[in-house]
Write the structure tokens for this entry.
Amino acid sequence: MQTNHQIVTKITLGLSFIIPLIIFSSYFLYHHSGILTVDLGQQYIDFLSFYQQNLFHQPLKFIYSFQNGLGNSMLGTSAYYLLSPFNLLLLLFPTSQLPAAIFWLIASKVGAIGLSSYWYWQHKTSMPIALAASSAFALSGFVVANHFNLMWLDSVILLPCLIASLDQVLTDQPQHLVLITFLLWVTNFYTGYMVLVFGLCYLLSQNLLHGWRNANCWRYLKLSLIGSALASFILFPTLIELLQGKAAGSTHWQLSWQFPLAHLLGKLTIGSYSFHEMAAGLPNIFITSALLVAATAYFFNAQITKRTRLINGLLLAFLICSLSFTPLVLGWQMGQFPVWYPGRFSFIVSFWLLELAVSQLGQLPQFSWRQLSGLLILAAGLISYWLIKRSQWPYLDQHELIITISFVVIGIIFISFLPLSPQLFQVLILLTVLLEAGTNLYFSLDHLSYQRDADYRNYTLNVKAASDYLKHHDASLYRIDKTFFRSDNDSFSGNFNSLANFNSITNQTSLKFMTALGYLHNSNSYTNHGGTALTDALLGVKYYLQPNFTDEHLKQQDRMTYNNRNNRIDVNQQKLIHTQTQLLLYRASALPLVFLSQPRRSPHFESDQPIMNQQRFYQTIFGKQTSLVHRSRWPHAVLKHAKRVANQPQHYQRQASHRFASVSLAYQVRTSDTYYLELPRQLNSTNLTLTVNGVKLTDEVRDEQTQLINICQQAKGQTLAIKLTFSSPSLNLTTIKLWRLKQRALHQRLKHYRLAQPTTYEVNPLQLSVTPFMLKRTEIVNSTIPWSANWLVFDHGHLLKTQRFLHTFVAAKLAPGKHHLTYCYLPRELLVGLLISLLTLLVWLKFKIVLSH
């Protein structure tokens, strides 16, 4: 029979989970808003949709998928985004309710943070204080600011478990360090690495504090290595992908500070968050005022030895410096500066501050007037700093500052009088912490905007219906593209192979290739913007989707909502094959993903010359005797509020007396070809507005690059009114170009070329089958499948030696005769990792069995 103590323990454990979950979810339920915002709505939801669709139906897609950009390994992506056990909750919801499923998934993780931290702190202090600290951790500034980065929250959950295991290592007690280390690596290796780094720092500091014992270090090292080796099945392939992807970028290590440390004091206020803070602000370290006061009072507590306060204070100082000192910032974040979401390990700083606060409140110290005066002076200095600097923090308004100051004062009063009536003031501290944490959540999230769940559902259901229709009518391997997009990862939600990709582990070779062809990109994404009819054909885009605006009976609120339109009017030359309520499906003239051509040398791609590179791509396949792209003469310009720079006929200056100036051109279209405007890299939507016949066409760039914009097709005899409006002092059009593509000739060439090509089918995500064919001479079987040593090409069961096509794709040389090709993707890194994990498991179990006897 359970004792009263056991019942109370279970109830409080339940409360530690339920309280932060209710506070977090109440904001969204009260506002009737969805959970989708920024990267969760533009990236992660697509991966989670992929997870929901394929976990039981196509699990091999978690190894390799053509939905991942041009085609790429999914192991690193799965390791970063998809291996949390909480993701299994998604399988309880239908596909149409995925946003709601993600909401409850995140809320459950927030509750689990409260549960794990309460479980850790309940042995160190009273129930109200442990509940206050765990709730503050679950609703800390980091969690509130990064709730939508849900793949990081597992490490926040596991952090208290790791520290508990390390405490047991230090005291020679049974522990679960192997399991916790394994889970940290597997659930999210990135933030898991940060927690393990802190675990090492914690172990060293506490081992030093309690009398150095080498045995503790060796025991920790042995158990950590076992846990890490057990996770090799995911760590090893992920490491290889990191070296090929994100880690391939260069980082400049230098002795510098990212920002003055004093600026962090502004992040201790309620509502210290905004869209700017999310993108390029300071780390989030909010933990509520009462517990911040308690953490500060820890260093005034004479009941705690000076040695203990010194060592723990040095660890805190190290953590705080790590938020700004460049070498430490890079060390915590695997040698890469974060793109958005600064201070990604700040939850560790919050945890350690709360650990000090719990240690302080567990002592019930009676402050002397001298100690209390020091605490009051620090509080007064902090409040004065807030008042002086408030104008420099756009996220902080007067009401938020007044509320924060009030909570600081209340916190000092409660903590000062805590020894007089411990039970009463512990409950008051708990209630104050919960109230302040909820207030911070409300004000912080009010600075963000969220997408409607219905918009995601409507968009995804329409796109997936189109891709399902195409799969039913065409079983071959091909790519699909769209003249619109909701996110760069639409292919994951829509279940189709495409071009675009947005991933923290983007294949850098594919990214560089797409950049050379003119596709819009940044350091970890490339989209379908910037392509032409030529690149569509060469990259195997066999089908195109366009919005259908012809159904007048469909209400506007029921139409698809998406962020961007790709101005690809050249798609209208394709054959319309199917009409849906909101989508039109076109068949394009495209190469298969595996095709035959004569042996030719791979060309060199020039930077900022996308059309030239596209032409070289084409000529590598078809030969240099054919030219489909021609440069057109730039028409005479008519200026308004501008003048030409002397001796530079296409360089213009804005008249100082006017805010805007314009350059207008009237171009007489003499052919039925397709025309593209090539804008130099310095021209973008921030300093230029481009209109053609009154329609604005300028795209928003990501990284600075040359842009390709489709301005007309089938417009013979018409006049194009091109207008470039600028507000900068000058506009240099010296390198602007107007290109003409013979799209009809391209289609005819491809039509005849395809007749001689075999057809490729996807047997499963790791195997492709090419129909049998005959060669009369030596040829190269090229492809637009990104090259990897894991791709094996077999001809009648005999392994061929692969080579690189355009330094990017898989190719192989074939002799004359009959051929039947099979492409197999062998995930070597995964197999090596699995072998290491399996051997480690066997040795570890054998060792435990021997010890048990």
